[in-house]
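Chain X:
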Amino acid sequence: MKHFLTKILLFVLPLLALMVAVEVWLENLPNDARNKHQWMLQHSRQVKTLVLGHSHNLYGIRTSQMGKDAFNLAFDSQSYRYDNYLLHHYPLDSLQTLILDFDYFQAWEDLESQPHMDVWAIRYRIYMDCDIHSRFSTYNLEVLHPKWVMDRLASTINPLYDKCDEQGWGTTARRETRPSNWNNGQRRAEGNTYHNEEILHLNEGFLRQIFDFCKERGIKVLLLNTPVTTEFRKYEDPRQVAKNKQLLHKLQRDYPNIEYLNLEADPRFTDDDFYDSDHLNQYGAAKLTHILKDHLNHTSCSSTH
């Protein structure tokens, strides 16, 4: 028995040592979550315009065009659970405007509720000091998630992978690198069509917490539906669109201070502005940000007269 246990230890210990070494290496790779967290720790008190949300806002809003007091804290697949957490996580003493996405699928996604997405919660636990999950949970070890490890390995090979500018805008969705089959509207729309209304109710709760926070502090909330291609809109599920409208009407009734700006089918955006069927490239992002800046300036001037 003792001989058997010795063999087990001789097998397990090198494996554990390898896992520890890989974990340390992974956590020391360049990381946008760590970078954004450090930026917010240093500058959050001066932020006047904050962008939250998922990849549509990450790649679509170039906060550097909005001034030095604007920051993009959106991430790929960021759900309302984490928008709400991040809003409460940093001291935002000067915050005047919050831009949050409300599009075809955002209200139907939650990282922890969907097994193919929960790996993204790692970024918050390890790199942003997020205490939603315990330090002893699987979300505190990258090496336990093979898909995440492969994505992180890709960041060492492709210099355009996992990169943001100094004010948080995602720089990798570029027209020059978009694939030939970029207008993948059917795949993207159908892949983001959901039927679990429990997640919709869950996200309504997170949105209400966000709106309550902003209402108490006099912060303007702009819900944004970013542009997508005609091909994407063609394959949207009418049921999901109708449920989104019902939720929006309910929230606007209870929170008249929030504004909804729907640019999903805005004719000012052409094929040249897209990276794929529902993400803008750098030129589309510049255009969208210009529109947002003008809109916010106009509404700000109107409210003072």
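Chain Y:
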Amino acid sequence: MEFIIISGMSGAGKSSAAAFLEDLGFYCVDNMPVALISSFAGLCLAGAGSGKYGRVALVTDIRGGQTFDELFQVLDSLREEDISYRLLFIEAADEDIIRRYKETRHTHPLTRQGHPLPTAVKLERMALDPVRRRADHILNSTGLNLSKFRGELLRLFGMGAAEETMMVSVTSFGFKYGIPIDADLVFDVRFLPNPYYIAELKECTGLEEAVRSFLFGYRQTTEFMRHLEELFAFLLPEYVEEGKSTLVIAIGCTGGHHRSVAVAHAVTEFLRQKGYRVEEVHRDISR
């Protein structure tokens, strides 16, 4: 079981970190009471064999109290029970945290005790210093946009090869039924020769060898695929580097039966060979 405990400064990005780890396949719990951590870890360890709780992350911070003696006792007990964990501490400069609170109009946990925001941030930093010193990883989010922040988390906690951290969905569709609303990249293959006008291919789909042989027998198709593969070979690693967790590639023809299906299938095979996790979807193939 991979067990991550996230702590750190309010407003530094702990909730954003948990949300991204959830995209990476972690089961995440925000604002976990310290007293429940040991029991929670034991339950997750017992269920890890089923795969449901193989990767777990929880957030615990100043909201649970201003002293962390109980947290340290829990961490020590986890070690004694041979439950391994990594403690991630997320921080940011005082100025950044204050600016974020001003922009979002959220309430800092310590301002509820009557402290002005700048004082609350300083008091929290002092209270969290012992936690910071025990951290396995310290992530400073000062000046990081969301993509760079996610990229740092990917570097620390990505599973396996970098390509495997992003899920790619290759979807064929028919323009007559509309472009998929979740598409990140859209390619129009209506310029390719249309098997619909070949009598023996009209009722076939792009998943059948006869249609694929017809399409890929044309120079336009092979040239297009060469350029498309070159584009994806450059573009997808850039998406992975910025921390993108899902990518939807939509390939459309008129009806979504022939050309888009065949090209989407070929793209799927290419990306799988490159090591990406890919799902192949043919939205309109049965319409």
